């Protein structure tokens, strides 16, 4: 049931297209949606019964706002923009880039063939993406041998090595006619678009000619290139009679989960596929349309010449946004591929359900146990902090992030403390919390739903001092308490720092234990890295009798302090260092090497 406040807002909703933004107790945007009729769509969340992720979303909504647009198309565009800006928890979100490399023909007087990770509007030709980096590299090496362009850095007055190997047209010592480059580029484009028969025929002719001239080494090299075509290119089944680059999208929805399959048809072959699985709030058709538009707005994404989707998807809307033909095949090979993508989507989802049944209680369920025990609003994201040092030296802090009970290592952060030069847990906590959440506020980044400190009331009070007094933030803060055996016991929470007991057999208890162990491990690992680096880099400067000239002389000769420590006294004396200083250097460095092999356990603040 909606609160009285929400009921009043629902009564004022307009019968117009636009976007709506759902907010939780902390005023964070947790879902963005679009609607042809805002009044009907938004009211449906509170006036109907729901299950799965939709029910979870509705349980967390305490407020919403709307943005009216002129058309449904404008609402669609605005929805994508808002999702990318706010990254709401309940929306489908895609990474900014594909992560796959592309083959590029550069746009310059003497063009090159390159493997790149970034697409720029520089006039070059891009082919890909290639999910198999090794295959992309091998393809470039093949093309550089068969259809060379320029492999050297440019004019240098003499032929380069690649020219003598037949892999460069000679821009290193002469002006290559533009017609020669154009002819090679046409052949490269034809090959990369799937017309490999011409290249294979040409290689066979060249191999036979080399064999007739008894140039067997050259003939063997050409034979290997033919085998590359047979092994890498032609082994992929031809699935189309044309060479149009096209992407195929299909889906399967069950129990509030959407499974999406994307087939990439390149060079008349199924080059790769992607599978995605999301719990969704809206209809499958709306979610898939949003997914497709976001998919092509990522960095380093080349649009195909055709997109195939099921008949239930609004292809005209997607086509008007992406300016690429969007079609639904009715028969033939394309229809078979679309159906195959749908069958694959179903298989992936059915397999995932079996795993979800096992993981649900350990992840999302465990998170809810913790928030219920603390008496706070349901949440998803926990950030935990810990400090580490050795006898007050090399002070560092570390932060780990768990989302729905699972660690997200991409969000982990390390901190070298700047304002603290001795073991002071209050000062260390003040600095790291101030740095972390000041930055999140400046970047308008999402805040956590709960902060856990690996310590007692001293650290908790320091956190509250920064959050509430300085930043006016009201994020719940709890302390992870250990017993006499250094094992997780319970949580400290509330104005009076009272103990909150967790059932030792519950998944919530195990989650707190995992978080505490993980942040402790991460902090100690980072500290050891810092301590090792500092101890090695500054050791020569602290040895009596070793000045800047002697230090540089030693490093030039041996390269590292480890190799210096392994040298003999006579080796150091040969550099003009007297015997006493040489002995002191070796004794000091060997003692430090022993310390690094058997480090003292860092002390936690």
Automatic annotation (TrEMBL):
Highest taxon of source: Bacteria
Occurrences of domain GIY-YIG (ranges): 15-92
Gene3D superfamilies, sorted: 5' to 3' exonuclease, C-terminal subdomain, GIY-YIG endonuclease, UVR domain, UvrC, RNAse H endonuclease domain
Domain spans labelled UvrC family homology region profile: 248-467
Predominant place of localization: cytoplasm
SUPFAM superfamilies from the UniProt entry: C-terminal UvrC-binding domain of UvrB, GIY-YIG endonuclease, RuvA domain 2-like
UniProt GO molecular function: DNA binding; excinuclease ABC activity
Domain UVR: 197-232
Xref: InterPro entries: GIY-YIG_endonuc, GIY-YIG_endonuc_sf, GIY-YIG_UvrC_Cho, RuvA_2-like, UVR_dom, UVR_dom_sf, UvrABC_protein_C, UvrC
One of the protein's GO biological processes: nucleotide-excision repair
CDD domains noted in UniProt: GIY-YIG_UvrC_Cho (cd10434)
Gene Ontology cellular-component terms listed: cytoplasm; excinuclease repair complex
Keywords on record: Cytoplasm, DNA damage, DNA excision, DNA repair, Excision nuclease, SOS response
Subcellular localization: Cytoplasm
Coiled coil ranges: none
Keyword Cytoplasm on entry: yes
One Pfam family here: UvrC_RNaseH
Family according to the record: Belongs to the UvrC family.
Subunit organization: Interacts with UvrB in an incision complex.
Annotated PANTHER family: UVRABC SYSTEM PROTEIN C, UVRC/OXIDOREDUCTASE
Function: The UvrABC repair system catalyzes the recognition and processing of DNA lesions. UvrC both incises the 5' and 3' sides of the lesion. The N-terminal half is responsible for the 3' incision and the C-terminal half is responsible for the 5' incision.
Official protein name in the record: UvrABC system protein C
């Amino acid at each position: 049931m909606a609160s009285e406040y929400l009921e009043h807002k629902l009564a004022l909703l307009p019968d117009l297209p636009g976007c709506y933004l759902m907010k939780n107790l902390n005023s964070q945007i947790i879902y963005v949606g679009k609607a042809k009729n805002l009044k009907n769509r938004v009211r449906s969340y509170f006036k109907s019964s729901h299950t799965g992720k939709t029910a979870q979303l509705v349980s967390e909504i305490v407020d919403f706002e709307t943005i009216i647009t002129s058309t449904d198309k404008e609402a669609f565009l605005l929805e994508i923009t808002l999702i990318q800006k706010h990254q709401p928890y309940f929306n489908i979100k895609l990474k900014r880039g594909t992560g796959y490399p592309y083959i590029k023909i550069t746009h310059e007087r003497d063009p090159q063939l390159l493997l790149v990770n970034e697409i720029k509007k520089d006039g070059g030709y891009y082919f890909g993406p290639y999910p198999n980096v090794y295959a992309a590299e091998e393809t470039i090496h093949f093309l550089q041998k068969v259809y060379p362009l320029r492999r050297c850095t440019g004019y240098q007055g003499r032929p380069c090595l690649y020219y003598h190997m037949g892999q460069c047209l000679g821009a290193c010592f002469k002006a290559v006619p533009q017609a020669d480059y154009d002819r090679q580029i046409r052949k490269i484009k034809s090959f990369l678009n799937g017309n490999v028969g011409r290249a294979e025929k040409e290689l066979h002719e060249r191999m036979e000619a080399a064999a007739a001239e008894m140039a067997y080494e050259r003939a063997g090299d050409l034979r290997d290139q033919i085998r590359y075509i047979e092994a890498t290119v032609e082994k992929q089944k031809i699935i189309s009679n044309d060479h149009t680059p096209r992407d195929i999208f299909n889906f399967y929805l069950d129990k509030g989960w959407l499974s999406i399959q994307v087939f990439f048809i390149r060079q008349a072959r199924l080059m790769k596929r992607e599978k995605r699985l999301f719990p969704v709030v809206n209809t499958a058709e709306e979610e898939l349309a949003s997914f497709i538009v976001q998919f092509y707005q990522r960095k380093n994404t080349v649009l195909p010449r055709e997109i195939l989707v099921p008949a239930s998807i609004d292809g005209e809307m997607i086509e008007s946004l992406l300016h690429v033909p969007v079609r639904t095949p009715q028969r033939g090979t394309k229809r078979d591929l679309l159906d195959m993508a749908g069958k694959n989507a179903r298989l992936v989802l059915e397999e995932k359900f079996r795993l979800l049944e096992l993981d649900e209680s350990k992840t999302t369920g465990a998170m809810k146990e913790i928030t219920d025990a603390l008496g706070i609003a349901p949440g998803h994201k926990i950030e935990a902090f810990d400090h580490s040092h050795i006898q007050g030296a090399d002070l560092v802090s570390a932060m780990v992030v768990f989302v729905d009970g699972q660690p997200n290592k991409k969000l982990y952060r390390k901190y070298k403390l700047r304002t603290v030069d001795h073991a002071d847990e209050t000062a260390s906590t003040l600095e790291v919390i101030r740095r972390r959440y000041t930055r999140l506020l400046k970047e308008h980044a999402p805040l956590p739903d709960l902060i856990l400190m690996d310590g007692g009331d001293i650290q908790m009070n320091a956190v509250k001092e920064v959050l509430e007094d300085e930043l006016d933030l009201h994020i719940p803060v709890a302390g992870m308490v250990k017993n006499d055996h250094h094992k997780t016991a319970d949580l400290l929470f509330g104005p009076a720092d009272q103990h909150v007991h967790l059932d030792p057999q519950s998944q919530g208890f195990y989650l707190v234990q995992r978080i505490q162990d993980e942040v402790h491990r991460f902090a100690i690992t980072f500290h050891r890295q810092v301590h090792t680096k500092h101890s090695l880099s500054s050791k020569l400067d602290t040895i009596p009798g070793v000045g800047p000239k002697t230090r540089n002389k030693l490093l030039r000769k041996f390269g590292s302090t480890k190799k210096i420590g392994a040298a003999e006294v006579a080796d150091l004396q040969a550099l003009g260092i007297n015997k006493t200083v040489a002995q002191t250097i070796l004794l000091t460095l060997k003692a430090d090497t022993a310390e690094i092999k058997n480090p003292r356990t860092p002390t936690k603040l």
